[in-house]
Design goal:
Distance between the termini: 16 Å
Strand order of the largest sheet: 1-2-3-5-4
CATH architecture: 2-Layer Sandwich
Strand content: 25-35%
Helix content: 25-40%
Order of helices and strands: EHHEEHEE
Number of strands: 5
Number of domains: 1
Radius of gyration: 14 Å
Shape: globular
Structural class: alpha+beta
Oligomer: single chain
CATH class: Alpha Beta
Length: 134
């Protein structure tokens, strides 16, 4: 983020659950509830729900079996930043030249990925309330 535009963190919520698609409905529900708390519109909430689901699908495809998926929500007055991470077998970032990445970027606004310690891959989304789609 450019200097001077960083928002102070108001609340941080962390959800950890088994890295299995059967549990993604929990994250979709948490995403919707937290975005509603920030007065996002219904369309923005739905975009975030789909974006979180898509980010998780990218990560679950390479998750170490039996590991946990962690989702951290940072809530500020005007935005939500969501970081989804999982231990992976190969430590590869999701490809940024795929249709899935394009969809994710258009739904969430700002999207990034990185590899952390122990081949933990992290996908970070940030959406501002009232922001126009790119």
């Amino acid at each position: 983020m450019p200097a001077g535009t960083q928002l102070s963190v108001r609340d941080v919520v962390t959800v950890r659950l088994p890295a299995a698609s059967a549990y993604l409905s929990v994250l979709r529900t948490a995403t919707a509830g937290l975005a509603a708390r920030l007065d996002f519109t219904l369309d923005e909430i739905e975009d975030l729900r789909i974006a979180v689901d898509e980010a998780c699908a990218m990560l679950l495809a390479q998750a170490v079996p039996g590991t946990d998926l962690t989702c951290e929500f940072e809530l500020t007055g005007e935005a939500v930043r969501i970081s989804v991470s999982v231990l992976t077998m190969d430590g590869r970032e999701p490809s940024r030249d795929t249709f899935a990445w394009t969809v994710l970027s258009s739904l969430a606004g700002e999207v990034d990925a990185q590899v952390g310690p122990d081949d933990r891959v992290i996908v970070t989304l940030q959406k501002r309330r009232g922001a126009e789609a790119p």
